[in-house]
């Protein structure tokens, strides 16, 4: 799920980078005491990474030489841990998508010191001014990264699509590849918008649109909510509300298509690990339908859930309130491991995608992808999954849940810290906002037990308000209708702990 959208623009609301760095240093020190990973790696892990980075070619003798294929990467401009590279081409009956994924298993052997450290970390943690990498940067931003003009080992998915975007054939192998260009989302989108798009990116846009249509046909659903991002502005930083660019959506469709191909391969092979999500409970869907009607955005009976979400535009306050409510339906994501067909989960689908799916395209940044890629390779070759790999699969769901919880907590705490620090300079100011959620007003447990004695007590009513400028969200002790407006004042900010307190203007004026 995306973070709450925030935008704090200089000079108001911007924060000195050094101030944020010091605060995050303190946050990480506190988290380390609770067992959270640190930016630094143990000496023996660094030594193992250096050795692996220098010796990978010795293990790549069986890799095909695909350095003549003009792959390109597409990422944020600042990224250096490049997991994926693509080569797209039109064929007589559709399209050919070759998707190269960093061959991390060639550097990180099962049950090695690097593997043990990666299992302890689980995933790369992205913080406002730094990241805590899954692997030492010698590997993740060096030898294993699909950097331009660098020969690197990769798993290469070869996907054949017909003219409608349906996958008609899949193969997987290992190869040494060499990316030709490191493309950046913003520049690529600017080129497309100006009518001077990169030829392969124009083809990506075309294939992405077809795959999006396939997602709609499956009943898949996605939330059109902007991401929270940290931007540097000289020696200051700010949190920005950044909308996903169309080319990013197209790129995501290639990754999702590959993850679905991986899931299909593992299901047919009888061993692997899926990313699952149950359908939203009917009562929750019914509640959402009633909320849509109450907001004056009725959900037509002839539209499925995903199709309805695609009609919502977060720029409209009523739609924004609905999108925040819809987020509650995207719950229950988990990993399901199986080592034989009898262990397959009853429902193999990821409900938001409307299809079985696996994480398979980000092994530099997420632990489970490395195991999925290895498992898929054995299935593609018609081989049995080796005992050491089969033994590791059942361990991964708990590892990913535990490490994901730690990573999510660190990321949220760091972003909250930046937001509180920036808001500290805005105390006393008044803001307009839109009500996007409402809670409270129900009878307390004590009141239910003894209604007369407790006087029919109820829990306090609170509303969550999306401010317009700066667009931050805040819980306020007030009442109102979803999609309605509310004027609030920033009463106080506790940078070190409790956060920001907003009150209705009427309360602050009394």
From TrEMBL:
Biased amino acid composition, Basic and acidic residues: 437-455
Annotated protein name in UniProt: RNB domain-containing ribonuclease
Domain RNB: 63-382
PANTHER family the UniProt entry points to: RIBONUCLEASE, RIBONUCLEASE II, CHLOROPLASTIC_MITOCHONDRIAL
Listed SMART domains: RNB (SM00955)
Pfam family, one: RNase_II_C_S1
Region (Disordered): 437-462
């Amino acid at each position: 799920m995306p973070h709450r959208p925030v935008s704090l623009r200089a000079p108001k609301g911007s924060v000195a980078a050094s101030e944020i760095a010091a605060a995050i240093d303190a946050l990480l020190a506190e988290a380390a005491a609770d067992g959270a990973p640190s930016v630094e790696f143990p000496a023996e892990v660094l030594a193992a990474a250096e050795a692996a980075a220098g010796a990978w070619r010795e293990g790549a003798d069986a890799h095909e030489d695909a350095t003549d294929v003009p792959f390109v990467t597409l990422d944020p401009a600042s990224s250096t841990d490049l997991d994926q590279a693509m080569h797209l081409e039109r064929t007589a009956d559709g399209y050919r998508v070759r998707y190269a994924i960093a061959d991390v298993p060639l550097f990180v052997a099962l049950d090695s010191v690097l593997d043990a450290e990666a299992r302890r970390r689980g995933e790369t943690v992205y913080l406002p001014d730094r990241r805590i990498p899954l692997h030492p940067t010698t590997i993740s931003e060096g030898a294993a990264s699909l950097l331009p003009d660098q020969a690197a080992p990769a798993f290469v998915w070869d996907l054949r699509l017909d003219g409608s975007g349906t996958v008609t054939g899949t193969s997987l192998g290992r190869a040494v590849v060499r990316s030709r260009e490191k493309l950046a989302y913003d520049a690529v989108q600017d080129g497309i918008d100006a009518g001077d798009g990169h030829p392969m990116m124009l083809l990506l846009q075309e294939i992405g649109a077809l795959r999006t249509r396939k997602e709609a046909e499956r009943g898949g659903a996605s939330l059109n909510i902007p991401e929270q991002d940290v931007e540097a502005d000289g020696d200051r930083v700010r949190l920005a509300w950044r909308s996903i660019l169309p080319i990013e959506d197209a790129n995501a469709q290639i990754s999702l298509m590959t993850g679905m191909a991986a899931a299909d391969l593992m299901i047919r092979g009888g061993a692997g690990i899926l990313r699952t999500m149950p359908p939203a409970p009917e009562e929750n869907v019914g509640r959402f339908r009633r909320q849509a009607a109450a907001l004056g955005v009725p959900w037509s009976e002839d539209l499925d859930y995903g199709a309805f979400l695609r009609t919502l535009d977060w720029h409209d306050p009523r739609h924004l309130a609905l999108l925040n409510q819809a987020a509650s339906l995207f719950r229950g994501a988990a990993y399901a491991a199986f080592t034989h067909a009898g262990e397959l989960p009853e429902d193999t689908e990821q409900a938001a995608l409307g299809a079985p799916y696996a994480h398979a395209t980000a092994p530099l940044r997420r632990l489970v992808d490395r195991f999925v890629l290895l498992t898929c390779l054995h299935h593609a070759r018609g081989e049995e999954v080796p005992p050491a790999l089969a033994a590791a699969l059942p361990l991964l769901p708990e590892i990913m849940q535990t490490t994901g919880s730690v990573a999510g907590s660190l990321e949220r705490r760091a972003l909250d810290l930046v937001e509180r620090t920036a808001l500290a300079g805005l105390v006393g100011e008044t803001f307009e906002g839109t009500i996007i959620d409402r809670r409270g007003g129900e009878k307390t447990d004590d009141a239910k037990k003894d209604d007369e004695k407790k006087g029919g007590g109820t829990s306090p009513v609170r509303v969550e308000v999306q401010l317009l400028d700066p667009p931050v969200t805040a819980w306020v002790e007030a009442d109102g209708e979803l999609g309605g407006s509310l004027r609030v004042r920033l009463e106080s900010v506790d940078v070190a702990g409790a956060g920001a307190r907003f009150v209705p203007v009427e309360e602050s004026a009394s």
